[in-house]
Design a protein that fits this description.
By secondary structure, this protein is of the alpha/beta class. The protein folds into two domains: about 1-185, no CATH class; about 215-540, 3-Layer(aba) Sandwich (Alkaline Phosphatase, subunit A), CATH 3.40.720.10. The protein has 21 helices and 15 strands. The strands form four sheets. Strands 4-11-8-3-7-5-6 form a seven-stranded mixed sheet, with helices on both faces. It has a four-stranded antiparallel sheet with strand order 12-13-14-15, with helices on one face. Strands 1-2 form a two-stranded antiparallel ribbon.
């Protein structure tokens, strides 16, 4: 078999680059080596078969495979994610340019130029040699595939977290469902005892709320006043970290916190929009997001409040239609305005204008209203009007915080001028945070770091008897208790649960309690504890896992 040495060397180096982050312990190292060997053997075989048809097609194949690996390595480095269905699905969602900062046409042009360049390189360095016979390459590839599957199955059976780390971190890695391998290995190995990953089989249901139209009428009768209006202001990707360090970035937010209640230690539950807003409006972990999405059913507080007689409206700088989120959390009877401008800052200004118009309607109406104002200027890519091309993204981000704070000032001033402050519950927060190469990562949706999940929360107009929410899961209960003064007070739980972003279901969780923080990966129904240090940690981890499993559906 004739092999292009240049191509094999390049593909081998790129495979090592995309697989380096998956190495974890001796078991992980063996898995990475065997899997990369299988991929390299597969490339050699397919490339050789293609060359028998056309050398030009073989060179194009090399260029495309190299490009695929380069893209994978870039995505890993920048975001910690992989070139998988979740990432590819971003390309098929509306608002791709606004949410990723990439121009579809420029991206296609860059891919085309990179492919041509790689094709040209291999044409210039086309040294080939008869190194291995085809049967030997096939044997090496098959042996690598078999060893990969065998090592993984045995390691998984015995509860190796290193094996799970490799499967999660290694691109193009596939294994059968563990049910089949575990059943087969059960005939070979002695009983492994309790589930090595999951320490409880408790299942529970999500928090459910109910608000009836009659309840609103009874509130008016009992208190002599209508239920409060509710104004929810959400800006995208606003983390607490920078405001905590420099309060002057958001003077309106900080000043309002002196008269109301402000927390910079609040948790958004998840690190992407569709999961965190789902939790914010349902009070549930996003473990039930996929079910709600597939069943096309409404969920959470907004549809219930609408059915109870509230007038519900929204002003969205960028549409909340991503991953069918709007179909789940927004009621059918809603007045929506969605920004159309290419510049998100202009859309943000229009969100403020539409929100002020809604406040004016509230002043003249006896029907209580709920309005959601969603801003996007603090999300990458930042408006070109903020600075020139050489301005660092972190500086642009801080400028965007200031502009959002300016829009917030307009709304809070209007509430006072329209005499709505005394009967309006105001909630200001963000859907998630953002990383700027803290520990080598940028963006969000990759891990449950404080940069990605700690966001500001400002509450205005809530009765003093209500406790400050600690996470987005607590916000629906706050709203219900603010609507009905007779509702029993539910204290926010001491334990906070976080869920890492995914397409329909979280792939990892964190549990934050008085005893510490415990991180878990979630795989095929198993919770996999990470980073245990001692026996005390193991005991607390067991407790954390049991609490988490009562919430997972």
């Amino acid at each position: 078999m004739r092999i292009n040495v240049f191509e094999v060397a390049i593909i081998g180096l790129l495979l090592m680059a995309v697989g380096a982050g998956a190495v974890s312990g001796f078991t992980g190292l063996l898995l990475v080596i065997s899997h990369l060997t299988a991929l390299l053997a597969l490339f050699i075989l397919v490339r050789n078969l293609t060359a028998k048809i056309s050398q030009k097609a073989a060179r194009l194949l090399f260029a495309l495979v190299s490009l695929l690996l380069i893209i994978e390595a870039s995505i890993q480095f920048l975001t910690g994610l992989h070139l998988n269905w979740f990432v590819l699905s971003l390309l098929m969602e509306g608002g791709f340019r606004q949410n990723t900062g990439l121009s579809p046409s420029l991206s296609v042009a860059a891919i085309f130029l990179a492919t041509i360049s790689l094709y040209w390189l291999t044409a210039k360095a086309a040294a080939e040699a008869n190194l291995f016979a085809a049967p030997r390459i096939i044997a090496i590839g098959l042996a690598a595939v078999v060893s990969t599957q065998f090592i993984y199955a045995v390691a998984y059976y015995h509860g190796s977290t290193n094996a799970i780390h490799v499967r999660r971190s290694m691109p193009f890695f596939w294994t059968p469902h563990p049910y089949q391998s575990n059943k087969l290995l059960g005939y070979v190995f002695p009983d492994r005892g309790e589930n090595p990953f999951s320490l409880s089989k408790i299942r529970g249901s999500d928090t459910e709320f109910a608000l009836e139209r009659a309840a609103l009428a009874s509130i008016r009768d009992r208190t002599g006043a209508p239920p409060p209006n509710i104004l929810i202001i959400v800006t995208d990707s606003l983390r607490s970290k920078d405001i905590r360090r420099n309060p002057d970035l958001a003077p309106t937010l900080m000043a309002a916190g002196q008269t109301g209640r402000l927390s910079l230690d609040h948790y958004s539950v998840s690190n992407c929009t569709h999961f965190s807003l789902y939790s914010m409006f349902t009070g549930a972990l996003p473990t039930s997001y996929g079910t709600a999405r597939s069943q096309k059913r409404k969920a959470g507080i907004l549809p219930e409040i609408s059915a109870a007689g509230y007038s519900v409206s929204s002003a969205e700088s960028v549409s909340l239609d991503w991953y069918d989120l709007s179909d789940i959390i927004l009621p059918g009877a809603i007045q929506r305005w969605i920004g159309k401008d290419e510049d998100t800052l202009e859309n943000d200004r229009q969100v403020t204008t539409k929100t002020l118009e809604q406040l004016a309607i509230w002043q003249q109406s006896e029907t209580p209203g709920l309005h959601l104002a969603y801003y996007h200027g603090t999300h990458f890519p930042y408006s070109e009007t903020l600075g020139h091309s050489a301005t660092p993204n972190l500086d642009l981000y801080k400028m965007a915080i200031g502009l959002f704070d300016t829009e917030l000032a307009k709304i809070l001033t209007a509430l006072d001028e329209l005499d709505l402050s005394n009967n309006t519950l105001v909630i200001v927060t963000s859907d998630h945070g953002e990383e700027f190469f803290e520990d080598g990562r940028v963006g969000h949706a990759s891990r449950l770091s404080n940069e990605q999940v700690q966001v500001p929360l400002l509450i205005l107009g809530a009765p003093d008897r209500l406790s400050m929410p600690r996470s987005h899961n607590d916000i629906p209960e706050l709203i219900y208790a603010a609507i009905d003064p007779a509702r029993a007070i539910v204290q926010p739980p001491e334990t906070i649960y976080l869920a890492n972003c995914g397409y329909n279901f979280p792939g990892a969780f964190s549990v934050i309690s008085a005893s510490g923080r415990y991180d878990f990966e979630f795989d095929n129904g198993y919770l996999i504890p990470m980073d245990l240090q001692n026996d005390q940690d193991k005991a607390n981890m067991r407790k954390a896992a049991k609490g988490l499993l009562t919430l997972i559906r």
